[in-house]
Amino acid sequence: MSERRGHDLGLHRVIEPEGALPQAAQRLDAESEAFDNEIVIDVQTLNIDSASFHQIIGELGRDEEKVAERVRSIVAERGKMQNPVTGSGGMLLGTVKAIGKDYKGPVELKVGQRVASLVSLTLTPLKIDRVIKVHLDADQMDIEGTAYLWPSSPIVAMPEDLPERVALSALDVCGAPAQTARLVAGQKRVLVLGAGKSGMLCAATARATLGDAGEVYAVDLHDTNLKLLKEAGIVDDFRTANAKVPTEVLHAVEAMTGGELVDVVINTCNVSGTEMSAILPARDRGVVYFFNMATDFSRAALGSEGVGKDVDLLIGNGYAHGHAELTLKMVREFEVVRSRLEALTGEG
Amino acid sequence: MSERRGHDLGLHRVIEPEGALPQAAQRLDAESEAFDNEIVIDVQTLNIDSASFHQIIGELGRDEEKVAERVRSIVAERGKMQNPVTGSGGMLLGTVKAIGKDYKGPVELKVGQRVASLVSLTLTPLKIDRVIKVHLDADQMDIEGTAYLWPSSPIVAMPEDLPERVALSALDVCGAPAQTARLVAGQKRVLVLGAGKSGMLCAATARATLGDAGEVYAVDLHDTNLKLLKEAGIVDDFRTANAKVPTEVLHAVEAMTGGELVDVVINTCNVSGTEMSAILPARDRGVVYFFNMATDFSRAALGSEGVGKDVDLLIGNGYAHGHAELTLKMVREFEVVRSRLEALTGEG
Ligand SMILES: NC(=O)c1ccc[n+]([C@@H]2O[C@H](COP(=O)([O-])OP(=O)(O)OC[C@H]3O[C@@H](n4cnc5c(N)ncnc54)[C@H](OP(=O)(O)O)[C@@H]3O)[C@@H](O)[C@H]2O)c1
Ligand SMILES: NC(=O)c1ccc[n+]([C@@H]2O[C@H](COP(=O)([O-])OP(=O)(O)OC[C@H]3O[C@@H](n4cnc5c(N)ncnc54)[C@H](OP(=O)(O)O)[C@@H]3O)[C@@H](O)[C@H]2O)c1
């Protein structure tokens, strides 16, 4: 076979516009056979981003055939599943079909292995041969198709000891626990704002990192998860408060700490307007980590300036070395996290 | 006189909505006399945010009287200068009129001193008595009025050795040099993306911090400032490239470094779509600092994930301890920076 050398960032698959990276591209080439630096995936399930899936259903109604046709036509046109309205993608699940000789990916993989992509579908060359079933309530589609990943695209082998949907929902947010482990190391007080899937995983990671050497606090609108986290010894204390009202959160935190501010704040809410609730409780030179994708850049930058807060404001990068492994480890080690994820995904 | 204790974050001036911080508030109370923790400023000049000023002129035309009336009515209605269309404010220049007995502000000030606020007008209680003159080309208005600042609001004494407009334009971006000094300390390779006002100041700060122990590179669309920075020894090398085309910037950087990536990237462009140009040139576990307010949170978060880059992504907090002093020091120490700011502001 001839040499088919690809670019490390996937530029060899970009059709237009020229010079764009695959995510910014209008159209990818998903027809060409594999390049030497690619791994080929037999795709079985597309996990469509929730915002995208709901936009499609909102437009077409809950009609499996129409939804299937829409996704098929987007992918046929763009060479990737990127909803032109929401701009978002999703993840995929499948089996390794072939590994190019120059593929040096982030983890060791072999042909036949079950894998999930940890990179957005918005930059993954994808070809759909057949849609088997649309799962309207799970934002998922079972398909027959092919995807190509190059070395810079994070990918993970699916664990064999966890229900697939539990693993997927944890992997979807796996950037947060990895950053949490780094940021809380050596600190005394940590606040987790929002105690949903990523919030629970971050609280567990903070506890695992700090042991008894630091305090982990949590705030959420409702106390269902908070109580369970406290019972399990993952958080030392919690309060319910509305993260859209910064002073409410500040008072809740001061009530827990006896008036002190915290070293690190991890914002895992899923609503907008929570920037200042994360910034106010942070101490001078503390760190605020925004995993919440509804964070507004300028509200955080100007808001922090507005209260004269000298804190580091971090954007929640979805990738960190070892992020998938660490996250699955937390699911395995903390029974309460696993059982909540099972309940949320309807498994177990 | 009676006790008039104010809240450290200015909540005592918020009329509506209840619980909001001054920046998020619809209306502030700028009528009440000073509280014990406030400093009172006789305001002489409003430096209206450029986006806001241009929106007003776009709507009303270049008519000084109409512009004055619009600003007056916004301030009368909201108790602060926050353009309801753009949401943005500006800065003010004035003279200290009174200092409350409980005002413990960020710097030592005395009555009669000339000061600039380093906090947005969007959260500063302001009352306008009279508009003296509108400077249509400078986004400025001379007025008679009163403003109140509480301890958490950054403020600075105007330097006596620099032209006022030069000092103002440097102070407007003073968050960036302070962060740059921290981030580049001990590093080997720094890239400054965009070489305008804040870019020149950041490059100078990187040079001052690193001395000969590291390399400072710069990229901009045009080479006017770049050449001057190189001649002055502030940058070691430069290239022109379009920060909206990530691979162009990556290649430019690799050409300067001999193929290496850099430890720290400082993004000071003033246009959108430059996230990936800042992320790609950063090395594994490097730092990318987004001072550019046109940065999009999710493009940075998902873009970095999309190329599997484990880098820290920092939001450009407008405040850092000592930011104004450091910035003015850079203007004084680096002749080329001062003369470029003089040229840009029409001074000197
Ligand atoms: N940066 C990245 O790479 C990346 C990747 C994936 C996801 N994310 C983001 O991560 C965020 C969290 O995802 P997730 O899967 O953990 O979501 P989730 O399970 O829905 O958790 C969000 C939590 O925030 C709580 N919450 C909502 N509004 C609140 C308020 N006003 N005050 C206090 N708490 C509030 C929710 O409480 P209730 O349920 O009790 O209302 C819920 O417990 C999302 O914004 C998502 O976009 C980021
Ligand atoms: N975070 C904060 O607290 C804060 C506070 C104030 C300002 N800011 C932000 O800081 C940024 C810079 O402010 P500034 O006063 O330094 O602006 P500036 O003086 O206008 O500098 C911007 C520079 O970026 C260059 N540039 C524009 N488009 C480019 C492209 N496509 N490729 C390469 N270079 C490009 C410009 O080049 P040319 O002039 O050659 O076209 C200019 O040299 C703005 O976005 C502003 O909003 C942030």
TrEMBL record, chains A, B:
One of its GO terms (molecular function) is oxidoreductase activity. Transmembrane segments: none annotated. InterPro entries: KDD_N, NAD(P)-bd_dom_sf. The keyword Zinc applies. Residues 12-159 form the L-erythro-3,5-diaminohexanoate dehydrogenase N-terminal domain. Keywords: Metal-binding, Oxidoreductase, Zinc. Its cofactor is Zn(2+). Signal peptide: none annotated. Pfam families: KDD_N (PF26370). The keyword Oxidoreductase applies. It comes from the Bacteria. Belongs to the zinc-containing alcohol dehydrogenase family. This is L-erythro-3,5-diaminohexanoate dehydrogenase.
